[in-house]
Amino acid sequence: MKKCTKCGEDKSLDSYHKDRRRIDGRRARCKSCHCEEVRIKAMGRREDKRSVGRQYYANNSKKISDWYRNYHKTHRKEVRTHKDVYAAVQAGLLIRKPCDVCGATENVQAHHDDYDKPLDVRWLCMSHHKLLHARLRREA
User: Fold this and answer.
1) What digits encode the pLDDT tens for the residues 13-58?
2) pLDDT for 115-126, tens place per residue?
3) Which one, 5, 18, 33, 140, has the greatest CB density within 10 A?
4) How far apart, in Å, are the Cα atoms of 56 and each of 59, 71, 116, 124?
5) Rounded Cα–Cα distance for residues 83 and 55 (Å)
6) Which of 36, 17, 37, 34 is nearest to 25 (CA)?
7) How far apart are CA 94 and CA 106, in angstroms?
């Protein structure tokens, strides 16, 4: 049994994260207090990032809108195809499937081998989709 320095409760050693630097090999705060602290810090960083993003957009809104406008002009077919897939998924005409590589069901994205066939897609998780595009860029 060990007493948490934050909540003051006596808990078993299994309730504490391991820490080789400590004499007893466990952290001073219990897992639930530690996780709560980490969550609060992460929320603060998330807000900081959001405010930085908002500030950047406020200072560079013309540049950002020009970039999007230019991208949409130069990639008309790709943008149209992405919109078609989104609409088909929303309408139930196209069903999201697990990743073709690993079978993951979270963050699955549609990959187009040919943009002339908008609803002919391969479903890939985000990490495998990024890997595929990295490989395609290297080969190009």
Assistant:
1) 999 999 999 999 999 999 999 999 999 999 889 889 999 999 999 9
2) 999 999 999 999
3) 33
4) 5, 20, 36, 32
5) 29
6) 17
7) 17
- Residue 101 is classified by DSSP as T
Q: Name the 3-class secondary structure at 122.
A: strand
Mean pLDDT of the chain: 94
CA distance 118 to 93: 12
Q: How many CB atoms lie within 10 A of CB 49?
A: 10
Joined tokens for residue 19 = 């820490």
Name the CA radius of gyration of the chain, rounded.
24
pLDDT at 44: 87
Determine the pLDDT at residue 139. Answer: 92
Residue 5: predicted pLDDT: 94
**H helix intervals, the chain:** 31-74, 76-91, 126-139
Domain regions of the chain by residue span: 1-74, 75-140
Q: What is the largest CA-CA distance in the chain?
A: 65
| Helix or strand run (H / E) with residue 11 | strand 10-11
Token pair for 78: 């790709």
